[in-house]
Request: fold
Amino acid sequence: NQRTSIPPTHEVDCGGITVKYHVSMECGGIRRKEFFVNALDIIAPGKVFEHCLDWCSGPGFIGYTILGTNHCQKLDLADIYAPSLEASQLAEPAEQRATPWHIQRLSDVPEGNSYDLIVGAPPWFPGQLILKQRTTCDSQLKIHQEFFQDVGAYLKPGGVIILIEGQTYLGPRDLEPLLRPNGLEIKQVLMAHDDWHWFPVIQRIQD
Reply:
């Protein structure tokens, strides 16, 4: 059995894949995972993406749900918190375990990896870091800015980026100045069923 630095205390079904986790690793992904499946069914009904990257993945609640519901063939996870990635490697069945990347920013993912679907639930509050809550606070949108600067190197032609944001704090106008200098634009905006979360569907300007 694989050992982890923080032993899991819970498990949850993610589209038929069992994800094990410690309660400290759950930052809303369990509630949001179905939002992503619904969004994919709207923007690409019936499509199975070849290779998905779940950015800010935690143990992989969102990514494993996308994989388990047959919305992608292959899954990678990328996160700053190593214990969450360790927990992701306890998922069952073992043959569906994702490739984990421990990163500080997206550019730490090794060159040569490319994705036709990139999803993420990044920190959503643009204010100053409060009590070191990196999972919720993105001071001056630095994390978003770095992501948009880096993502083009990993996005396949015609590839799609779907993030989940909180409309009280961030809207399309907040993201647009970060997108266009990097050759990206919001192609579509979707609302989640809770009427608070929203999804910018982002692609290259020329796609």
Remarks:
- The chain has a mean pLDDT of 90.
